[in-house]
Amino acid sequence: MKSDKLKFFAFCLAVLLAPLPLSGSYLTNVLVFVGVNSILALGLNLLLGFAGQISLGQAAFFGLGAYGSGVLTSVYAFNPWVAMVVVALAVAAFAFAIGFPVLRLKGHYLAMATLGVGVIANIAFNETVDLTGGPSGLSGIPNLAIGSFTFDTDLKNYYLVWGFALVMILLSLNLVNSRFGRGLRAIHDSEVAARVMGVNARLMKVQVFTLSAFISAIAGSLYCHVMTFISPTSFGFNTSVELLTMIVIGGFGSVYGSILGALLLTMLPEILRTFNDYDIIVYGLLLVVMTIYMPGGLVKGVPALFRRLTPKKAKEGANA
Amino acid sequence: MLNLNGIGKRFGGLTALDGISFNVGKGSITGIIGPNGAGKTTLFNIATGIYPPSCGAVLLEGKDISKLPPEGRAHLGLVRTFQNIELFGKMTVLENVMVGLHTQSKSGMFACAFRMPWQMGEEKRIRARAQELLEFVGIPELADVEAGTLPFGKGRLLEIARAMALEPKLLLMDEPAAGLNSSETAELADLIKRIRDLGITVALVEHDMDLVMDICDQLVVLNLGTMLAEGTPREIQDNQAVITAYLGEE
């Protein structure tokens, strides 16, 4: 328990100090999006990595959050903070409602159903032109502000987004190491046994699905206020696949793994700009290679690799 | 304690169980035996709500629980172990037992995420109780091992500890001795008696006749989905129909 607190504290410190050596360069801007993606990846990891329930429709909740906040603030002049809360709660309520029928499905069927939700949401963003601006996007979204302090630079946005991310990381760490989190992991390992142990699997799956949607919606709100302009392409199927790739690469069922995956996959396209439209192929390849050779992601795979390279220690560890 | 009333189960055109009725007496150890394919595991799955019976009713302490899902039955004190051990393989041994304490605690998603003070207290109690249960079954030293790496015999003990965490009134064990060697089986027999001595009713499906004859107060014999006989171990040993079912006719 002590080392967990220490780890989180060290992580907070790293987040706090990271932008300093970058001194306002373009990388700070990238790190803002690493923050947004970290929140999204975390939301998906709670659902998929811990509870074992796949979702290929995370971009829908992300988009609903972004468009909800965007429309309410730019068209209806809502206070952005109020809009963020209202929208997140509304998206959570929506997820809760569709959660009961959708999460009765398992495996491929669940993937297809959530994929459907994602596709429908994306069509809605494109077609409701009067509200969302359709394919040409929605502009004029205000920055977030506290009093007269406006989050209008990369550095300010960095601390805004990562402030949210850190709170969510802390809450997620609490959650997974608790009665609720154990219930989720039990459902993942054996749903039948979990239910026989009195775990209300159906309800808990819907709860974590709702939580995951709530988290994604918050990320969406933050994203729209950071960007001040949004368009449907940011909330399509590709985004859902990217998120999936993040947690598979970073660490399936690991809170910090979500962050690592978000960091790597947000930086990667920046470095490999040449891939452009073929990025989905790279993601596909990464998914295949990782699931075959490092099913636990980098956070579990790399230490395991070290243990394999020092076989004696590994055996002692197993007997301990 | 547990009444099975005219239980029948058909899978498509196959009748797996037909008209099974018996009573598991409070505080007893009841053995359910029968040749392979007799329908023993199916009967267990119906009793614990894994799937519904085609006809008949399951009563726990006089209350009809036929329509309750497994988690609902667990809350009423009806708990089972599995023939092939269903552990939560990626969780530690201690965490497995802590999941078993799910019905004995109530912290929800918000309390857990925000670490409410009473949730922390509950968490501490869960952990301490789980450790006690590991001691009860004799594997306290394995608390931090990943459950999926346990040898079969230890896994069986863990599964029993996890089931005991629910403070069951009735513990159903599906072939608890399967895959155990003779010294492990002797330990198991001792453990089951200790569980009975805590006032918990035990019903088990088992192939190991020495174990069954040693620990059971009452036996039910199934054959091809029907009840063949019911009685004390001694009566069953002398029952001609049972001998025929097991050894074939001369």
Q: How would you characterize this protein structure?
A:
The complex is a heterodimer of chains A (320) and B (250). Helix content of chain A is 75%, strand content 1%. By secondary structure, chain A is mainly α. Chain A has a single domain (2-282), classed as ABC transporter involved in vitamin B12 uptake, BtuC. A two-stranded antiparallel ribbon of chain A has the order 1-2. The two termini of chain A are 19 Å apart. The N and C termini of chain B lie far apart (39 Å). In chain B, the strands form two sheets. In chain B, strands 6-7-8-3-9-10 form a six-stranded mixed sheet, with helices on both faces. With 250 residues, chain B is an alpha/beta fold. In chain B, 40% of the residues lie in helices and 24% in strands. Chain B has one domain (2-247): P-loop containing nucleotide triphosphate hydrolases (Rossmann fold, 3-Layer(aba) Sandwich). Chain B is built from ten helices and ten strands. Chain B: One of its GO terms (cellular component) is plasma membrane. Chain B: One of its GO terms (molecular function) is L-isoleucine transmembrane transporter activity. Chain B: This is Branched-chain amino acid ABC transporter, ATP-binding protein. Chain B: Residues 2-249 form the ABC transporter domain.
Properties at a glance:
heterodimer; A: 320 residues; mainly alpha; ABC transporter involved in vitamin B12 uptake, BtuC; two-stranded antiparallel ribbon; 15 helices; 2 strands; 75% helix; globular; disordered C terminus; B: 250 residues; alpha/beta; Rossmann fold; 6-stranded mixed beta sheet; 4-stranded antiparallel beta sheet; 24% strand
Question: Can you describe this structure in just a few lines?
Answer:
The complex is a heterodimer of chains A (320) and B (250). With 320 residues, chain A is mainly alpha-helical.
